[in-house]
Design a protein that fits this description.
Blueprint: E1 9-13, H1 18-29, E2 33-38, H2 41-53, E3 57-62, H3 68-82, E4 87-90, H4 112-142, E5 149-154, H5 166-186, E6 191-198, H6 215-224, H7 234-245, E7 256-259
This protein binds nicotinamide-adenine-dinucleotide.
Length: 271
């Protein structure tokens, strides 16, 4: 049986760790040819090797999503390696450095330089990735190589409600609104634009350690925050992104899909 993105060519950013790595592996399992892009070249390479070892078709590239030329190079790599582009998954994202032992910084404690970097990666990185993909989709359409394409970004439940730090939530809120506005702008070209909004996942994000000896306890405590009672795994979120990139979602655009165990739905009366 064909996979959900059989034969499609995807660029996935932030592919060296956590959600991005899970997405590369899952998209490859479902038949995609993937460029694994990450600012950490060695980790991107390791992800591509993991996908290849599992029988997938993946190549790696070092890429800083805050640099438009670097993002253009990742799309060019897809064309060079696999002949075209069908999907970009703008997943790379960071937050302000947490204070060890104290957790997330308050807004008033954030330094201008670190705030600018978070904005550049989380907002401009998504914008540059989408611009590069749209230009390539349009080139393909003009050349009679098929119209349209899929853009998916990783926002967060922090972009839908107050959660997980002010500056970070503000950047993810920008991704949520960007997703809606861009979806309208490019709908006529057959380009679909969606985002996934995960709740907390145990990755290297915000200084967490997915290999921690306390992993089970952390996952249990993360799960308790959600009505469904389970922690969100990177593969859960990658699955939502896969669906949104697949033809099963061919009439879905402009949505910001929570992957949050019911967190955003609300809570029981009196709970
Ligand atoms: N982990 C969570 O709790 C959580 C919750 C909601 C949303 N998110 C979002 O999920 C996405 C993936 O994060 P994760 O949890 O897998 O964290 P992670 O730290 O494990 O992975 C992020 C990856 O992005 C890469 N990266 C960082 N800056 C980059 C840049 N400028 N260009 C290219 N790559 C860059 C890192 O090298 C790393 O490999 C992010 O957008 C994050 O904001 C995470």
């Amino acid at each position: 049986m064909d996979g959900l993105v059989q034969g499609k060519v995807a660029v996935i950013t932030g592919a060296g760790s956590g959600l991005g790595r899970a997405a590369v592996l899952l998209f490859c399992e479902h038949g995609a040819k993937v460029v694994a892009a990450d600012i950490n070249d060695a980790n991107a390479e390791e992800t591509a090797k993991m996908a290849q070892a599992a029988g997938g078709d993946a190549v790696a590239i070092g890429c800083d999503v805050a640099d438009p030329a670097s993002v253009d190079a990742a799309v060019a790599k897809a064309v060079e390696a696999f002949g075209r582009l069908d999907i970009i998954y703008n997943n790379a994202g960071i937050t302000v450095n947490p204070i060890p032992g104290k957790g997330l910084k308050s807004l008033v404690d954030c330094e201008p330089e670190e705030m600018k970097r978070v904005e550049d990666v989380n907002i401009n990185g998504v914008i540059y990735g989408s611009q590069a993909a749209i230009r390539q989709f349009e080139k393909q359409a003009e050349a009679g190589q098929g119209s349209g394409g899929a853009i998916v970004s990783t926002a967060s439940v922090a972009g839908l409600m107050g959660y997980g730090g002010v500056l970070y939530g503000t950047t993810k809120g920008a991704v949520v609104q960007f997703t809606r506005a861009l979806a309208i702008e490019v709908a006529g070209k057959g380009i679909r634009v969606n985002a996934v909004c995960p709740a907390g996942m145990l990755t290297h994000y915000a200084g967490m350690d997915p290999d921690s000896e306390h992993k089970d306890r952390i996952l249990e405590s993360m799960g308790k925050a959600h009505p469904l009672g389970k922690a969100i795994e990177p593969r859960d979120t990658a699955s939502a992104a896969l669906f949104l990139c697949s033809d099963l979602a061919s009439n879905i655009t402009g949505v910001n899909l929570p992957v949050d165990g019911g967190l955003f739905a609300g809570r029981k009366t009196g709970a």
